[in-house]
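Appendix B. One record, verbatim.
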Amino acid sequence: MLGRLDSVLGSIDDDIDFVIYAPPDIVPAHPRQKGKAALGAILLRVQAEFEYLSYRPHVVGADANSAAVAILARLRRRSTGDNVDLFISNFVRFRNGRMIEMREFVDHADGVEKLFAGRNSSVK
């Protein structure tokens, strides 16, 4: 993804309104923010700390002006070599082919596994 950051940012409106809800060890808390530069800085920080091993987006729903995307991702923390499995939900709105709003929810996939560990559950 690091090599594609310019193309990703090219599809984002200069005044994008965004919020990222994520575990603080993945992305430190970010209140609602505006601007391509702010989003780009966050993406660069994440890419500096993590190597993307896999990134599998699945479009849940979309129309001309909005999309909902579920993403399964595996990252490796560069400082420790530890792998992190993530489930990411993105809800985005578009205008004139550019992303103008994003709400992102990030959860550790292994957190769900730990929640149900030891329980008689079909969730694996």
